[in-house]
Amino acid sequence: MKLYAIYKDGVLYKASYDQNTPFYETIKGAEAAIKSQTNRRSLPYDMIENRKQYTEKDIQDYLEKQKKRYTIVEFSVKENGTIG
């Protein structure tokens, strides 16, 4: 069985506090979690509060930089239940 984990800046990342584990059963699930963390709803408060001083290009550049911070790593679950 394969599991997928998200790393942000090289550190294991849990995209949702509601989720019990940082692992995803499908690559699509991990990609969706990253997508939810790199959309307009996840802009920092200061960008939202001072949005008049940011152009659309500034916002898009920020979101693209955020996307590059995430990586998906594939793991295999061994027979004894450990992840390797």
Could you characterize the architecture of this molecule?
The protein is α+β, with helices and mostly antiparallel strands and 84 residues long. Helices cover 35% and strands 23% of the residues. The chain has three helices and four strands, in the order βββαααβ. It has helices at 27-37, 45-49, 56-68, and strands at 2-8, 11-13, 23-24, 70-76. The longest helix has 13 residues, at 56-68.
* Range of helix content: 25-40%
Number of strands: 4
Shape: elongated
- How much of the polypeptide forms β-strand, as a percent range? 15-25%
- Biggest β-sheet, characterized? 4 strands, antiparallel
Distance between the termini: 11 Å
What is the average of the pLDDT values? 88
| Rg value | 16 Å
What's the oligomerization state? single chain
SSE class: alpha+beta
List segments where confidence is low: pLDDT < 50 over at least 5 consecutive residues.
Answer: none
SSE blueprint and pairings:
Blueprint: E1 2-8, E2 11-13, E3 23-24, H1 27-37, H2 45-49, H3 56-68, E4 70-76
Antiparallel strand pairs: 1-2, 1-3, 1-4
